[in-house]
Amino acid sequence: MTKRQIVLLASRLVQVLPVVVLATVVIFGLLQLVPGDPAAVIAGEYATAERIAEIRHQLGLDQPLWRQYLGWLFAAMHGDLSTSLITGQPVVEEVLRRLPNTLLIVCGALMLSISVGVPLGLTAATHVDSPVDRVVTTIASLGVAVPNFWFGMILVGFFALGLGLFPTTGAASLFQDPRAAVMHAALPSVALAMGGTAEIARQLRSAMIEVLGSQYVRTLHAKGLPQSSILWRHGLKNVSLTLLTVIGLVFNRTLGATVAIEAVFAIPGTGTLVVTSATNKDFPIVQGTVFVLVMIVIGCNLLIDLLCTVLDPRVDK
Amino acid sequence: MRTATAVPIITAHEVGIHFPVAGGRTLRAVDGVSLEVHRGETFGVIGESGSGKTTLGRALVCLERPAAGRVLHDGDDPYRLSAAALRRHRRDFQVVFQDPNAALDPRMTILRSVREPLDVAGELPRAERTRLALEMIERVGLNPEFADRYPHELSGGQKQRVCIARVLTLRPALIVCDEAVAALDVSIQADILNLLADLQREFGLTYVFITHNLGVVAHISDRIAVMYLGKIVELAATELIEARPLHPYTRALLSAEPVALPSHMRSHQRIVLHGELPSPVSPPSGCRFRTRCPMAVTRCMQDVPAWREVEPEHFCACHFAEDVGDAIVPQRPGGTP
Amino acid sequence: MTDALLDVRDLSIHFRSGAREVQVTRKVSFTIAPGEVVGLVGESGCGKTVTGLALMGLLPRGRSRVTGNIFLGGEDFAAMSPRQMRRVRGRRISMIFQEPMSALDPVFTIGEQISETLRAHRDVSVGEARARAIEALTQVGIPEPELRYDAYPHQLSGGMRQRAMIAIALVCEPQLLIADEPTTALDVTVQAQIVEVLGGLCARLGMAMLFITHDLGLVAETCSRLVTMYAGEVVEEGHIDDVLVRPRHPYSSGLLRSLPALAQRKATLPAIPGRVPTVAEMPAGCRFRPRCAHARSVCEDPQSLVDSGNGHVRCCRQEELVLPGALRGEVAA
C-alpha cells in the first residue's frame, strides 16, 4: 500500500465521523417528536403526577435536550442502550438476540444476489442484443419491479405449503441447529435476493459493455490476448469498483426490506422488533434497534469505500 | 501599416493569472506577461499544452480577470466600466474556439445560433437581426439554406464557419482564434484560413491567433509570441522569428515541426528536446526552460532571464539570446526569401 | 513484388448494419518491404484507420465483411480463423493508437501490460517476462524503467504513455508495426521525441512500419514511401520524394498545396473545394472528380490504379497533367 493510500484511508475514516454524529442526532431527535410521554406510559394509567415526575427524573427526562442527547450517546458508545419500557430488559440484549436472524437472511440474500447477478450480467454483456441478453434484461426489469414480499408469499405458497420442502414461518438459531436455521432462512433469502440480483445484473451488464467497447480493450485484442483473459482479468478488474458500489447499495436496501419480509415469514428479527415496539410505544427499543442498524449500514459503506480506495489505482491523482 | 504612436487595441502589462490548486498551492497559468496587440494585425501566440496560451487569450478579452498586472483596451482599463458597460464593451472582443461541436447548441438551428448574440444584445428589431444573421451565414461561405438546419447535419468545417458567422454578427474589433483550425483536415483548414484572411481585409479585424501549429501561425500572423510555462519567451515579427530565432525553445520548436519537403531540401537538423514539461505549479528556478535547454548553464538556474529587446522590435528572455541568434538556423521554405 | 513483407491485394471492407451493407474501402492494394516505413495519408473518412484495423483483424466480425488478401510473409491473414489471427496479433504484427491514455488499461501497471503480451505469445517465466518488459521500456527511452514498470498509466505524461504503448507493441519483436496517428494527440516537441523513438526502433529491429497520419510533414520526415487514400481507394503510391516534388494525382497535389507551411506567407491557400463524399453520395467514375480542378468528361469512367513509372496512380489524366508539389514552381524548376 502506498503512503498516498494510507493518507486517503485515514481521511475517509475522518470523513465518516460527521455522518455518525448526524445519524445519532436524527435517531435521538426523531423520538422527541413522537407524541405521548414515556414516563406516563411507564407509570401506568392510574399513577399520580408525583410518581410520573419521579420516573421522569429517574430517566433523566427533566434534563435539557442536549444533556439528554450527550448522556444517551455516551451510554450508547459503551454498549448501554437503556432498557425496554415493557419488559425492563436491556435493549442491547433484546437487539442482539434478534440480530442474527436478520443478518442470516440478509447475508444469504446478498450471496445469492452476487452469485446469480454477476454471471447473469456478464453473460448479457458478452452477448449484447442476442436473445440471451434480452432474456436477462427482461428478468432484471421484472426483478426490480416485483415487490419482494409478494414474491415471498408466492414462494411460501409453492415451496412450503405446496411441496413442503421448507418451513413456512419462524427461524432457528444458527448456533444451536444450523440445518434448521438454513432451512428457515432459505425462502426469505430468495425473496429478498430478487431485487439485488436484478440490480447487480443490470449494473454489471452496462458497466461491462462500456469496458468491452473501450479503446484499451481494443489494445488488448491488438496484443493478441485470449478472450478469456480480456474478460476475466481485465474486464472484471475494471468493473470491480462498480460491482463493489452496487453491492454496498444492495446490502443497504436488503437490510431495509427485511421489515416486510420478516413480517411475511414471521421471523423474530430486528424488523419485527421495530414494528412491535413502535406499536407498544417501547421507544428505547425502537431507538436502540435503529441505532444498531444504522451503525451497521455506515460501517458497511465505510468498508466498501476503503476497498475501493485500495483497489483503484486512479484515486491518488 | 501601423504608426508607432497609435494606441494598441490591447495592452497587457505584467499580467498574471493564478488558479488555486490542491494543497493550497497556486498555479500561475500566466505569469508576468507583457505585450501589445495593434489594430488590424494578426498576433500569433504559439505554445504547447500547459504553456498558458489559452488562459492568456481569455484574459486579453476579459473572460479571465488577471490577479496581477493590467489589461488595457485602447489604452483604457475595461474593468473600470460599469457592469452593463463592460457587457457592451465585450461585444467588441470575441472568441472562436477549437471545438465547434461544443460551441453550438445541438437543439438550435444554425440561424438561431448565429442570431443569438444579437438576440442577447436585444438592440435591433427581430427582422433586422434575422437579416443580419443570414447575411453573415452567406458571408462565411455557407449556402443560406443551411439556416434552418441543425449542427449535426453539418461537417466540422461548416460548423466552424457557423461559429465565425456568429461572432461576426456583433461586428467585433478583435477576435481571439483559440486553436480554431486545429481539429480540421488540412484542405478544410486551408479554407478556413483563407476565409479568416478575407474577413480581416473586409471588416478590418484584429486577430489574436492561438495555436500549437507553427505552419498555421507563421502563415497568418504578422507577429508571433512564443509561450513556455506561463511566460512569453520570445516576441517578434514572423520573419524575424523564422529567420533568426533568439530563444533556444523557439529554435527547438521550429526544428521539431515536420515539413513536407523532399529529403534533399531538408537541410536542418532536428533538435529533440529531452525531458518532460515541468509542472507549472512548481516551475524551475531561474529560467523556466533550463531543465530542457541544451544550452543551460549554472547561471540559468539562479537568474531569471530579463525580458529585453535584444534586437529592434525583437524581444526575448534568454541570457544567451545573442549567441542563439548567431548560431546557424534552419531556413523555412514558406518564409520570405 | 515478390520480396514484400506485407502484400495487401484488393482489400475491400464492408460494414453491415442489419440487412444493409456499405463499402468503406474498395480494392486497396499496396506492399511494404521488410524494414520499410510507409506512410498512409488522407483526410478523415478516407478509410486509413479501418484499413489498419483490417490488417490486424480487429474489425468487429459480426458487423463487417473483409474481402481480398493480406499476405504477411507469404501467409494470408484474411483467410485465417479468429483463433489463428489472435496468435499473430502482437507477435508478428502490432498496432499503436492515437490516444495513449484511453488505449492503456487504467487499472494495470504498464509493466504488467507489457509482460502479459509477452506471456500470451511466448513461453516465458514471470521473472523473465519482467526482465524483458524492463528492457522494452529502456528501448523506448523511458527513464528509470524498473520504477516505471510499476507505474499506472495515469501516473505518466502523454509522451511517456505513448512510449509505454510502443513498448507493448514491440516486446515480441513484430515484423510490422501499424502506427495509427501515434503523435496527433501530443505536443510538437513530444511528437519529435516519439518519431525519433519509432525511427530508431525500426532501424535497430529491422521492423517495418505502416505510419497512418494526416500530416504530410511527418510522412516526409519518417517514411520512404507514401500511399495516399481518398474516399476508400488508393489514389497514389510512390517514393516519398517523388510524390512531394511531382505528385501524379490531383488529390495528393491538393493536400500538399493546402499546407500553410509551404505557401507564401499571407497568400491565399489553394484549398481543395468541397469535402470527402460519404458512402451515400459517392460519385460514379473517379471519386475525386467533384472536387478536382482538372476533371474532364473522361473522368466519369471508373479509374484504375496504373503504373506511373516509379509508383502507381489512379488518374486517367496523369500523363498529361503537370501538378504542383511541395515546392513552389520557381524552386522546383
Could you give the topology of this structure?
The complex is a heterotrimer of chains A (317), B (337) and C (333).
Chain A lengths: L2 H31 L4 H6 L5 H11 L5 H13 L13 H36 L4 H15 L2 H15 L15 H35 L2 H8 L4 H39 L4 H10 L3 H29 L6
Chain B lengths: L9 E12 L3 E13 L4 E5 L6 H8 L7 E6 L9 H8 L2 E4 L3 H4 L6 H12 L4 H14 L16 H13 L5 E5 L7 H18 L2 E6 L2 H7 L2 E6 L2 E7 H6 L4 H9 L41 H5 L5 E4 L2 E3 L4 H6 L11
Parallel strand pairs in B: 3-7, 3-8, 5-6, 6-7
Antiparallel strand pairs in B: 1-2, 1-4, 8-9, 9-11, 10-11
Helix pairs in contact in B: 4-5, 4-6, 5-6
Chain C lengths: L5 E12 L2 E13 L4 E5 L6 H9 L7 E9 L2 E2 L5 H7 L4 E4 L3 H4 L6 H12 L4 H14 L5 H4 L9 H13 L5 E5 L7 H18 L2 E6 L2 H7 L2 E6 L2 E7 H6 L4 H9 L47 E2 L3 E3 L15 H4 L1
Parallel strand pairs in C: 3-8, 3-9, 6-7, 7-8
Antiparallel strand pairs in C: 1-2, 1-4, 4-5, 9-10, 10-12, 11-12
Written overview of the protein:
The complex is a heterotrimer of chains A (317), B (337) and C (333). Chain A is built from 12 helices and no strands. Chain A is mainly alpha-helical and 317 residues long. Chain A has 2 domains: 1-83 and 282-317, no CATH class; 99-268, Orthogonal Bundle (MetI-like fold). In chain A, helix 7 (148-162) crosses helix 8. Chain B has 337 residues and is of the alpha/beta class. Helices cover 33% and strands 21% of the residues of chain B. In chain B, the strands form 2 sheets. Chain B has an 8-stranded mixed β-sheet, with helices on both faces. In chain B, a hairpin with a 2-residue loop joins strand 10 (308-311) and strand 11. Mean pLDDT of chain B is 88; it is low at 329-337. Chain C has 2 domains: 6-223, 3-Layer(aba) Sandwich (Rossmann fold), CATH 3.40.50.300; 229-332, no CATH class. In chain C, the strands form 2 sheets. Chain C has an 8-stranded mixed β-sheet, with helices on both faces. A 4-stranded antiparallel β-sheet of chain C has the order 2-1-4-5, covered by helices on one side. Chain C is an alpha/beta fold and 333 residues long. The chains are: A mainly alpha (317), B alpha/beta (337), C alpha/beta (333).
